[in-house]
Design brief:
binds adenosine-5'-triphosphate, single chain, alpha+beta, Alpha-Beta Plaits, Ribosomal Protein S5, domain 2, four-stranded antiparallel sheet, globular, 26% strand, 314 residues, binds L-homoserine, ATP-binding, GHMP_kinase_C_dom, seven-stranded mixed sheet
């Protein structure tokens, strides 16, 4: 008898959005991970297949974010059966595009549907956060929240979790520039200063509030002024060749700002139109030719749908 199978997709995400370290993120269209799940006749969760990772990812369910997330979910509902997980990686590892989060979220959305949707979509978040703790050493929610819910998301608090979906201004576009080098989130968290001065805390708070207001007022100028990070960027940008050159190159293109996507090395650039986002893409090619580093560039609208079921086979 053919087993029921469900496949879900979860998008790439940009965490932090410059000023919102660990508390802001948004989802990107078209790029992401797919996960297919089916019930098995054991009482084990198994990652049975991974494609697109060049053999780099662990199959062990306490190490792969799909396994960690699904295990946490099944435990919470006291489910005794077994689930097989197949992972199709669309996102590069250690890229800053929320690769570990996309796998976990796709696995959760697929498993939830497989079991008849016992959880509301947002109620899957704690299980995804658990998987980030294993992958990155910190249970940050700014990739998993937008990967699950789509759009811009604010994590107002972690204890208890308080996640607020924000407005997505019409016309806003994103360019992602991924220089070919790997930066692990755990490593780029370890370079951060553990203390912030009063002056920097004030500057950062002003920018976060400005960015949120700008998103609601659909005020591109205000968004642009607010895309400024005095906490993580100074320590992390030195790990990313071409970062300062990119900031300079986009200034006259009409883009709103350039920042580090998550913990890097991918850079994100927000633009008020698709045309400007493509101009940024052309300029980034020129910058990285000079730097001498290969890049992939993606131009994308903001994904407002989040993760979703792609296919269900009875
Ligand atoms: N399914 C998975 N997909 C990606 N990484 C995974 C997965 N499962 C476990 N990992 C582990 O998580 C770590 C991923 O690294 P990292 O968190 O830096 O990548 P990322 O998710 O692309 O980054 P970021 O969170 O900055 O966007 C690696 O050590 C990898 O082995
Ligand atoms: N907020 C996290 C995101 C990692 O993608 C960090 O900056 O470390």
């Amino acid at each position: 008898m053919e087993m029921k199978k469900v496949t879900a997709f979860a998008p790439a995400t940009v965490a932090n959005v410059s000023c919102g370290f660990d508390i802001l993120g948004f989802a990107v269209d078209s790029l992401g991970d797919r996960v297919t799940v089916s019930l098995n006749d054991t009482n084990e969760i198994r990652v049975t297949r991974i494609e697109g990772d060049n053999g780099k990812l662990p199959l062990a369910i306490d190490k792969n974010t799909c396994g960690v997330a699904v295990n946490a979910m099944l435990k919470a509902m006291d489910f005794k059966g077994g689930v097989d997980i197949e992972l199709y990686k669309g996102l590069p590892l250690g890229s800053g595009m929320g690769s570990s989060a996309a796998s976990a979220v796709a696995a959760l959305v697929a498993t939830n549907r497989l079991l008849g949707n016992p959880f509301e979509k947002a109620a899957l978040l704690p299980f995804a956060i658990e998987s980030e703790r294993v992958a990155c050493g910190a249970g940050h929610a700014d990739n998993v929240s937008p990967a699950l819910l789509g759009g811009f998301v604010l994590i107002r608090d972690y204890h208890p979790l308080d996640v607020i979906p924000l407005n997505v201004p019409r016309g806003l576009y994103c360019t992602l520039v991924h220089p070919h080098l790997v930066l692990n989130t755990a490593d780029s968290r370890s370079v951060l200063k553990q203390h912030v001065s009063l002056k920097d805390a004030t500057t950062q708070s002003g920018n976060i509030a400005g960015l949120v207001a700008g998103l609601y007022q659909e005020d591109m100028e205000l968004i642009s002024r607010s895309l400024n990070d005095v906490i993580a960027e100074p320590s992390r940008s030195i790990l990313i060749p071409g970062y300062e050159e990119m900031k300079e190159a986009i200034k006259t293109a009409g883009a709103l700002g350039c920042g580090i996507s998550g913990s890097g090395p991918t850079l994100f650039i927000l633009s008020p139109t698709e045309e400007i986002a493509w101009e940024v893409s052309r300029r980034s090619q020129a910058v990285y030719e000079k730097v001498g580093l290969p890049i992939d560039v993606y131009v994308s609208a903001i994904n407002t749908r989040g993760a979703y079921v792609v296919e269900e086979k009875k």
